[in-house]
Amino acid sequence: MKTAIVTDSTAYIPQEIRNKYDIHMIPLSVVFGGETLREEVDIFAEQFWQEIKKRKELPTTSQPPVGEFVELFERLAKDYEAVISIHLSSGISGTYNGAKTAGQMVEGIQVFVYDSEISCMAQGFYVIEAAKMAKEGKSPEEIISRLDEMKKSMDAYFMVDDLSHLQRGGRLSGAQAFVGSLLQVKPLLHFSDKVIVPFEKVRTRKRALNRIFDLFGQVAGKHPVRAAVIHANREEEAQKIKEELEKKYPDSEFMVSYFGAVIGTHLGEGAIGIGWYQK
User: Fold this and answer.
1) Which of 79, 154, 201, 226 is the most exposed place for a label (fewest CB within 10 A)?
2) What is the Cα–Cα distance from 228 to 171, expressed in whole angstroms?
3) How far apart are CA 214 and CA 249, in angstroms?
């Protein structure tokens, strides 16, 4: 069965990788005043951080219209028998449900919608694996089985400079326990049961990063992993972290990725994290 792979822009998979593996992408949007910009299409991460500095108010974010999914699935139905549509956690966005609704509206193609329960390059890891398997001619069921296997070890921890963006956007569960975080505390966050929750309060940025390295090392010290160092406009810092981790864990694979416009709106500039799964 010929299977197409679809994801959304919050996986932040570079265009060249999407082209290489025939990955189709539906963008989420950021809204500045009355202007709607599709991330990874109309606005890219670098431009986004420049735009934020110019404007006083943060943008809002919006999920893709169901019609965009319908249009894409109908187009794919001409060349494919099935589509696996992999999206950011349903606990923080309606994108997954939008794809499910669209899948029920199209005919002539089987639509499998997969909740990554996470976001950014951690989500991207699922997409790339699925796309490689699809190119090998694996069935949708085989691909989804592999994604479920990956999910058992998929994890990510990240720190933000403060929680105000996440609180304002309603994307943080359990925020009331962290009200003090706005006073020079660097909150460590992760995904749990599809939502972003506080993991620990750490006093300084350095300690927060060291705690992420410690959590990562508890896994990478025992099993080789694929990992991404993910940053919000801190590329140089992310590259240094990647190089340090490569020396320490030579059996693991590392890449640098980023928080783009939509996720960056909620995390704020300076956020940094690591996402990984066991190879």
Assistant:
1) 79
2) 22
3) 13
Give the distance from CA 141 to its chain's centroid: 23
Tokens of 132: 């490689």
- Give the span between the Cα atoms of 81 and 247, in whole angstroms: 44
- How far is the C-alpha of 83 from the C-alpha of 72, rounded, in Å? 10
Kindly report the pTM of this predicted structure: 0.93
Q: Judge: domain 155-278, CATH 3.10.350.10.
A: no
What angle do helix axes 66-76 and 95-105 make, rounded to 10 degrees?
Answer: 50
**Interacting residues of 95 by C-beta distance below 8 A, sequence separation 6+:** 8, 10, 26, 28, 63, 64, 87, 88
Domain with CATH 3.30.1180.10 in the chain: 155-278
CB 219 within 8 A of CB 212: no
First to last CA, the chain: 26
Distances (CA, A) of 152 to 20, 145, 194, 226, 277: 27, 11, 14, 14, 8
Exposure string of 27-66, with b = 16+ CB inside 10 Å and e = fewer, is bbbbebeeeebbbbeebebeebbeebeeeeebbebbbbeb
pLDDT band at 204 (very low <50, low <70, confident <90, very high): confident
How far is residue 30's CA from residue 61's CA, in Å, rounded to a whole number? 4
**Lookup result for tokens 């390295």:** 213
Place of tokens 């919000």: 232
34-62: per-residue pLDDT in tens?
899 999 999 999 999 999 888 877 899 99
Q: Does domain 3-28+63-151 have CATH number 3.40.50.10170?
A: yes
Only one residue has tokens 């029920």, namely 104
